[in-house]
Amino acid sequence: MPQITSASGAHHCSSRLQAIRSPTAKLIAIACLSICGFGIKSHADDPNRPNVVIVYTDDQGVGDVSALNPTAKFQTPNIDRLAREGMTFTDGHCSDTVCTPSRYGLLTGRYSWRSSLKAGVMGADVEHGLIEDGRMTIASLLRDKGYRTGMFGKWHLGMQFDGKAGQRDWSQPFRDGPIDHGFDEFFGIPASMNYGVLTWLEGDRVTKPAAMWTAKKPGLVTYDKSSYRITPPYGSEPKKSRLGGALEVADDFDDVQALSRFTDRAIQFIEQNSKHPFFAYVPLTSPHKPVIPAPEFVGKTKCGAYGDFMIETDHRLGQILDTLDRLKIADNTIVVFTSDNGAESTYKKRVDVFQHDSSGVLRGGKRDLYEGGHRVPFFIRWPRVVKANSTTDAPVCQSDLLATLAEVVGTDLPADAGEDSESFAAALRGKPFDHGPLVHHGVKGHFAIRDGRWKLILAADGNKLYDLQRDLSETTNVAESHPDLVAQMQAKLTAIVANGRSTAGESQTNVGGVDYRDWCKCCRESR
């Protein structure tokens, strides 16, 4: 590693060392060496202990990044900056097509359908959280390597609050949140805002009891009849609205504050830990509903409230990047930017109203097994290692981040961790990387498998095989022309499911068992 020193300062220290002989003087010499930058490596200079920041957006399609979509109706200069200063993964995927399971895959390196959740998502208050007790997460991996770990944003992996709605003991800690799964600090909310228990959470406590009641109020997106807001005033009795049932809420909760609060707390955490290796996980609530840009962003784009919300999202990322620059730690900080799934289905209306396509050239969006459901924005910047303005077309999945970071920090994963996590650290260093088959999973529990250029969707109405090299938009089903290939891919999927892992290693057990043939019920057509 090159040493960064002042030549005159080094000479000054060297000449002073000639006369040093006493033990006390030797201590002074050591201090001088440290000041001059000789021999002692701070964590900021150590590529085996980089800081890690993951910014995770919610329902953002590939078309919502101006660097990926030349016809976008708004600009995302800070996301584009990551592309310019880092690596773009043009074939990057979330593990599922909706919130909860993708977050499980990201943090644990294991496909969600191996867990107790076989379809759908979790709410805010559940009987058992999705991450099993003792299961390794990115946070616990890095904490065990001496990192300080913090999460700031939306959890949505299930937690338990004491008592039932309207009869809570708010003095008690909630269980199964981030603090129980490897994070030293947490500030955020339990789940998406439509699931209730709407209060700001700190550590394993609520900052204020969610003892008031509200219902969804009409939102800002005029072309979406389900658009809503969570904003005061609130009431003392549960009431419904045309948009949904009653929700528990704290009197100081306001949806428009979420992005700024999460970002401010993430920045505070980074500032407090800048001289120590840290991991900051920042799962934002945008551009998921409620679509509610802060006042200073309203009317700034030609794509309505959604476009305004996206440029606020980009701005919040920029605040984090600026903090890394100001603290002079950007060079050895890995910044990952990606989304939990593709764009919400209202993207089709935005095409009509604003001529903006959040899915770009991809077919489908959130909940779909087509590429638009799980091929997402995926950027990594690490100036010390990753070549600027580089691109890879190697398929990668968010579940691969656990194994990748384990390799970066020099540790091996145990047999019962990261069963579906394949390190792509080689790709970050500009070396060839070939991924094994990827399994995609839809909201209703149906499956698809990706193997090289080929993708097979298993559906009740027949198999659908696409050659993504020639047909990225998945317009032509060629299953009938390749029956042997279909059979081979089905066999690979069967083996991946039955083995309890898709990577090399000791076979593991799926929670509750999984048989893809029982789950491929329907492939939801979105286009």
UniProtKB/TrEMBL annotation:
Per UniProt, residues of the Sulfatase N-terminal domain are 50-410
Keywords attached to this entry: Hydrolase
- Asked whether the keyword rRNA-binding is assigned, the reply is no
Gene Ontology MF terms in the entry: arylsulfatase activity
Task: Quote the EC number.
Answer: 3.1.6.1
Query: Gene3D superfamilies of this UniProt entry?
Result: 3.30.1120.10, Alkaline Phosphatase, subunit A
Class of this enzyme:
hydrolase
Q: What InterPro entries does the record point to?
A: Alkaline_phosphatase_core_sf (IPR017850), Sulfatase (IPR050738), Sulfatase_N (IPR000917)
Which CDD domains does this chain map to?
Answer: ARS_like
Instruction: Keyword check for Hydrolase, yes or no.
Output: yes
Q: Which family does it belong to?
A: Belongs to the sulfatase family.
| Designated name of the protein | Arylsulfatase
What is the organism field in this record?
Stieleria marina
